User: Fold these one by one.
Assistant:
Number 1:
Amino acid sequence: MKEESTGRMREISNEELVNQLFDLYGNDLKRIAFMYVNDLSLCEDIIQEVFISCYRNLSTFRKEAQYKTWLIRITINKCKDYQRKWSFRNLIYKPIMEPFIHSNEVAAEDVYVKSMESNHILTTISKLPAIYKDILILFYYQDLTMGEICQITNVKLNTVKSRLARGKQLLKQMLLKEGVEYGPIR
């Protein structure tokens, strides 16, 4: 629905809705996809498939959830589909260096070190089992509430809480095993 200049609400087309959803959530979905596949061009392909799927299935969207949670679920499923493919499992990850901190006041060396640390943490998260990886990505990188995570993953609240705690513990163990100490994982 979109308000016309006359004050009446008009029905918007599916194309307009998908374009609005892309503008609102495209970057967030791309970040989620990148955390799963660690390849920028592949994550762009996945996001394209997500919005094609969104367009095709708009008529089946029951509006029991928000569009954002629905799109995140589609993105996660598409990423998992790619991970199941034989060709993907045999790729060597080549993470793209992208600074996660943008500040003019920080020395270039500090930005580089923080970028390397963030990249290493993301790479380590990508090695976790999917049940923990999903929760950690949604909680820390998408800042979703426990309730929203429950909707997206179709998992009960207590299960989400225990998977978050277990995922943090596994991540910490993996980082320590690699000899990396990043401070407390909240």
Number 2:
Amino acid sequence: MKFDTIIIGGGLAGLVSGIRLQENGHNCAIVSTGQSALHFSSGSFDLLGCLPDGTEVMNPLDAIGSLESSHPYRLVGLDAIKRYDKEFPAMMQRAGITLTGSASRNSYHFTPMGTMKRTWLTLEDFVTLDEPSHLPWHRVAIINFPGFLDFYTKFIADELEKQGATCVLATVKLPFIEKLRTNPTEMRSANIARTFDKTENIDMLLREIASYCKDVDAVVMPAVFGLSSAEPMKYLKQHLDKPLCPLATMPPSVPGIRMQQQLTHYFVRLGGTFMLGDTVERADVESGLVKAVYTANHADIPLMADHFILATGSFFSRGIIARPDSVYEPIFDLDVLYDADRTQWYDNDMFASQNYMKYGVITAPDFRAICKGETLSNLYAVGSVLSGHDALHEGCGGGVSIMSSMYVADGLLKNK
């Protein structure tokens, strides 16, 4: 099988690059092992929340110039980032996903624990604030379902009360959710969301929570509405007579799963080939050129392309793997940045910035991958597999995936 571009990895980075290319006439295939980190998403994309020295960032565009020259953002360049700040939300809108926010100023988004973090773009389902102290409600009802343990109402109440709100906690029993409780493993966000695909079940919920909504300014509930469509959430908001503040639950995340599905379906509608449940195991590389890759499902049948994009992620998705004394990339054996002294990989303070978070694939300035010191002419690396950034400490994981993917895709289109 022959394609213009084969993308290895079906998470955010892989889908963004694939969609960008398909929208502009490339014939692409994405090889995806399975679930991606999008299933853990709290409904927002971070760009830059903190500099490596701990300085908080409110205007990411102003702060990017302070990053080290090896940081992926510096390779993409400020002009491109400003352009993608507008073009990425437009692309997501074409996929049916509406986002709010701007790279010129971070907003604050609620986490599943009720705390607030700085972020760039947020799904329209969710509430954002300009300042964490500017809570727009005085009295809040926090509603959960009995037996649903991935939504921590007490922690959320504690955080809201720190901001001056008075919280009323309640649980509501609904017969269709009670059926799930007969098997504790079924009481997960995705299964609950499926029950709310029926509008009559949302109507029953509205009747049950009506008494708790009378004397409050807003209602906080777990974001378990709309697994495959945004319509259940829209219906609930339209028929609830108080503002709704849905909070993403602990994983799996219903909004994250829906985003994954919407992006995948859009990529396929554009004519892309999505190979779900397959894994690239090895590659043919000759004279600095990737000729083909081989997957578990296709055995000895080569998948060939003019270009290849590595979007396999970091340690979490085994895009890079740690041995006791080294870190390696498992498909192409690419050059990886890491410290030879294992004691330097981590800090004993678990809340400190951890060096291993910056480990990843080394690339040329245009994100072409390097193997044994040689730049591979048609293999590019994007997203969290890249070295030089700390996605957790800097709050830049989503942004690095988006910006590097769009930049690489545009480079391929320019040279088409």
